[in-house]
Amino acid sequence: MNFKEIQFAGTPDKSYIPDDINLKLPENNKLPTDQLHFLLYIPWEEKYINFVPQEFRNLFNKVLPYLHFRTTDVHTAISLGFLDEFIGKFPNTSINRTVVAVSLILHDSGWSKMSEEEIADSLGVKGLVLTEKAVGPKEKHAAESVKIAKEVLGSDDYGLKLTQNEMDLIYNAVLFHDKPEMVTEASGSIPIEVKLLVDLDHFWSFTHENFWQDTIRKGVLPKMYLQNLSKDLDKYFVTDEGKKMAANLLAQRVEEVSELKNI
Ligand SMILES: [Fe+2]
Ligand SMILES: [Fe+2]
């Protein structure tokens, strides 16, 4: 893997990211220079649609305009790419795949209603555990996502034939998607679809794209970020299968970071 040097105010000196990761700043942003790195994002490209299973592309394309913030578009598509592999880890459980997919498509649409300051605050964390400043935007984006979900699903069902019960489950999953502790604590009464959404959403932190993006966006050295992810992994995932998949992804990132050491 080839790396390129990258330098933004507020990030460690001599930062490197893999060649294939493209980071951009929004135009006309209003944040002070030392906070700009929080707004870096990976621009959307058509190739990412290939991660989205065919039957959900109509809905995905409808929601896409709400996802062009904070790399949410790329995140949502890549996370959908894990959908069937992850559901396959639960062969003896009845899982409503459509509910999981639709929840995932809508779960972060609320970032479109958030200010640059709120987005910057949400990323001011060095690992996965939220600081006090990051909690507000995290709660708000989930509530905003529920509003958008109701608007979008209220007008059409994009060929998915959703029942009212399924829609209600989707709204609840979206509302709780960023609360792994709550979902773990109330585990017995939480539908499996909500648990799968939480874990599918969180795989993103362990992917090639977001790992490297976040080293710059959060201004943390790759080696340190590996340690932070590994330390937080257990409480960040709700299912044992999710923990295992995240550990596999983390092992891939460890490999990549070891390549960087040769520079
Ligand atoms: Fe979220
Ligand atoms: Fe998310």
Name the beta content range.
Answer: under 5%
Percent helix range: 40-55%
C-alpha end-to-end distance: 11 Å
What is the makeup of the main sheet? 2 strands, antiparallel
Figure out the total of helices.
Answer: 12
Query: Averaged pLDDT, please?
Result: 91
Question: What can you tell me about this protein's structure?
Answer:
It is a single chain. With 263 residues, the protein is mainly alpha-helical. The protein has a domain of 155 residues. Helix content is 53%, strand content 3%. The chain contains twelve helices and two strands. The protein has a two-stranded antiparallel ribbon with strand order 1-2. A hairpin with an 8-residue loop joins strand 1 and strand 2. Helix 2 packs across helix 9 and helix 4 packs across helix 7. The longest helix has 24 residues. The radius of gyration is 18 Å and the shape is globular. The N and C termini lie close together (11 Å). The mean pLDDT is 91. One fe (ii) ion binds next to loops.
Summarize the structure.
With about 260 residues, the protein is mainly alpha-helical. The protein has helices at about 55-65, 70-80, 85, 95-105, 115-120, 130-155, 165-175, 180-185, 190-205, 210-215, 220-235, 240-260; strands at about 5, 15-20. A hairpin with an 8-residue loop joins strand 1 (about 5) and strand 2 (about 15-20).
